Amino acid sequence: MNDQIVELIGADYGISWLSWGVQYFFLIGLSYAAFFLSLPAFLFGRRDLDGMARLALVVAISCGIAAPIALVADLHQPARFYQFYLHLTPGSWMSWGSLFLPIYVVGLLIYAWLVYRPGLAAMANTGHGPTATALRILSMGGNTSRGAIRVAAAITAVAALLVALYTGVEMAVVATRPLWHSPFMPLLYVTTAVAGAAGLSLLLGRLFGAVDDATGTRLSGIVMAGSGLTLLLAGAWLLAGKLGYSPSGQVALRLAADYNPLSFSGLWLALGTLAPLLLAKRLPLLAGALTVLGAWWLRWSMFIDGQRIPKTGAGFYPYELPVGAEGLAGLLGTFGLWVLLLLMVTTWMPWRGQHPTVR
After folding, report:
1. Which of 200, 191, 104 is nearest to 154 (CA)?
2. pLDDT value for 212
3. What whole-number distance in Å separates Cα of residue 102 and Cα of residue 160?
4. Measured between alpha carbons, how far is 214 from 212 in angstroms, rounded to an integer?
5. What mean pLDDT comes out for the span 314-326?
6. Is the pLDDT confidence value at 358 over 70?
7. Residue 10: phi, psi to the nearest 5?
8. Mean pLDDT of 103-123
9. How far apart are the first and last CA of the chain?
10. pLDDT at residue 98, as a whole number
11. Which of 239, 244, 256, 295 is most deeply buried (CB count within 10 A of its CB)?
């Protein structure tokens, strides 16, 4: 009888969704959440919320334009994006997302243009030369189109809801990644996006001197609400894992206790979620900054750390953040792109002025 040697080899799967993917999910979450924060004033006529809406719309536009660019970069070969439209796959949430995303971005830009039209006309009347001419053409008369704003807001709102759904479900349906495969995933993405959008609006308001005490209080309240809901969801998720009802929650507990406790437990749960809830009234600017960090760090932990957990076997796949375009340079480049878009919006758009509301 011959002895047989059976050799088991564990494959080391590399990180396929890189930093660009984290940036996309982060930026698009801030964008759709900020868009909804702009609706009470611009759509429902809440003049007392005009300050919050103006800041939120700046966040929605700048993040909404930067997000698809990060997504295209994550395809490794940007020209691949057209394949989504040549080969639509009804059973794929990613395929549906390729339809939802452009509808949302285009709808957001049309909605913002309709809101800004009177302000663009006012800027054209006070200026001269080619710039004034371009603004006059862009404003197309500068009329307040209440009905058009209502239609654009409705279409964009539906698209934003679909984007929020697909960006969460796209990960939640991946059964081969136990950490992602949970109904808590889409909900956590939404609550952290809302808190992050309010926090970023608050920071920009202070930076540009465009936030009064009432607006700051409202945004701080949204930061607290978003952070509180996030903590409740995270607690329910981890408790379900502890009780054995959620395999995803069990993996999250391992992530928090064994794999990367500083990243998941420290930077997200404690610093990015609990701290803003406790500090929102006393130190609103710090709380706002921490919610933005928390929204980003949740996505980093889910994307990067989630891919480091082996599908079979024990251990933890090694990962070091590359310095090049697929790592640190990609993160800094996306941030630089967002800053550029932010400067363009705040320089060329009449975001400080009074905008029309629909009554």
Report:
1. 104
2. 87
3. 10
4. 6
5. 74
6. no
7. -95, 125
8. 90
9. 89
10. 87
11. 295
